[in-house]
Amino acid sequence: MSATVPYLIRAIQLNIITLEIKFVLCNVSIVEFFKDSGGLMDFKTVNSKKGLSKSAATMCEVRFDHHQVWRLHWNDFNVYESLNAAFENVKQNYENLVDIWTVNQELGYSDVRVSPSAMSFVTSILKPLQIVPIVQVENIQTLIDVQEDSSSLSNEWDNAGGSNFHKSYHRLSEINEFLDEKVKNFKGRAQKVLVGYSYEKREINGIRISGTTKNRKREIIFHGAIHSREWIGAASVLYIADQLLSLYGKDDLVTKLLNIYDWIIIPVLNVDGYEYTHTNNRMWRKTRQPNGGLFGCIGTDPNRNWDYEWSKPGASSSPCSEAYYGKAPFSAIEPKLMSEFIYNRREDVEIYIDVHAFSQLWMYPYGARCDKKVPEEKKILKAAQDGASALKKIHGTNFKVGGICKTIYQASGNSVDWVYARANVTYSYAIELRDTGRYGFLLPPDQIIPSGEELFSGLIGLAETVATQEKRW
Ligand SMILES: [Zn+2]
């Protein structure tokens, strides 16, 4: 027997013990554990560095040391499709090794996160396609650490209404505390809204913000974090809630818009996933509902599970895919509850916005069909363009306006198509916030307020045009 064999056996034993502890403490399936870890090799690296005596929190946290984001330029749509197929194939076995962050059809590139252990393999996929990757982010973990440091500062915000609140990202409990505080401080103008309970029985909360006039109000509904890793969406809509409450009676246009529209804001729709991004895996996108079986991957893409053109191109049938469309339309409780919430008030809803990140886009239906145009495109487009130009006035940030399919990618079973086609809400949009790839999902906390400011201006611009087009004033 070689001298290295006992060490190898010991290493395997240690890995099994760690795996068992993690399985129990972190509430993950065995397969998810390996996939989260980016495969056994990354897992060994992490644990040999960190030791096995770390706290449960550290044990549960997936690290992204030296994971990079690569920008892959493709000139031809066929190349793009072969790339996607190759990545989907890798993900069948190792979910966490590669992960497409965004696609830019106009300029012809995809941004992809690549783990260190996948780099040579991905390079071998790129070579025959003649793609030379450009490194966009050197080390993802460094950016995650910056965001986490900001969250740990959150103890320092004086109270949920304090001015420091928007300087950092927050856990769900702090967001709920913020909503409660606003409802308490703005009696008669702010009401708590409960959309329902998530798969893991968390409350999906929102806030309804109104003017004091007694006329019939139409509604503007928007939510953030349907994809849990898109923290800037939640943070920006919270900033908007604050602005609407404090500017009523002070700013003419805001006051007028609150006298004709109730604004319903749900900061975090995918509450389970959002908590999971804080405790276990910063890059988690889907829900946390298991897909069955001890070895099954967890989660459904809550923006591919809506009952319009469900399971069509632009979504995946693989439970391990980031774009998994689920077992059936609305098999994930969170989009189902959101759809019921909207459907029940469809006579009143004038504008719906699903706030995502990142890529700086302002999009409308359809995502499922690239050949199908919305009949009211002229006025839908005009409102979006006015929104995007009001947004740009604040910090000069450009948002591209267009239909989902041609602007980002084909996406069937998405929220915006369903709200437009099934709830008959003409002004139904998906907005992708900052940035265009420098930080991607890991936007530093000092950009929360600028992002909130420009989105606020954009939504006011949008609402003003819609109110005019629909003769609401
Ligand atoms: Zn998203």
From TrEMBL:
Domain Peptidase M14: 168-466
Alphabetical UniProt keywords: Carboxypeptidase, Disulfide bond, Hydrolase, Metal-binding, Metalloprotease, Protease, Secreted, Signal, Virulence, Zinc, Zymogen
Positions annotated as active site in the UniProt record: E432 (proton donor/acceptor)
Secreted found in the keyword field: yes
Cofactor: Zn(2+)
Transmembrane segments: none
Gene3D superfamilies per UniProt: Metallocarboxypeptidase-like, Zn peptidases
Molecular function as annotated in GO: metallocarboxypeptidase activity; zinc ion binding
Cellular compartments annotated: Secreted
GO cellular component term, pick one: extracellular space
Classification via Pfam families: Peptidase_M14, Propep_M14
InterPro entries linked: CARBOXYPEPT_ZN_2, M14A-like_propep, M14A_act_pep, Peptidase_M14
A single BP term in Gene Ontology: proteolysis
Chaperone found in the keyword field: no
PROSITE patterns (UniProt xref): CARBOXYPEPT_ZN_2, PEPTIDASE_M14
Function: Extracellular metalloprotease that contributes to pathogenicity.
Family according to the record: Belongs to the peptidase M14 family.
This protein's name: Carboxypeptidase M14A
Organism of derivation: Clydaea vesicula
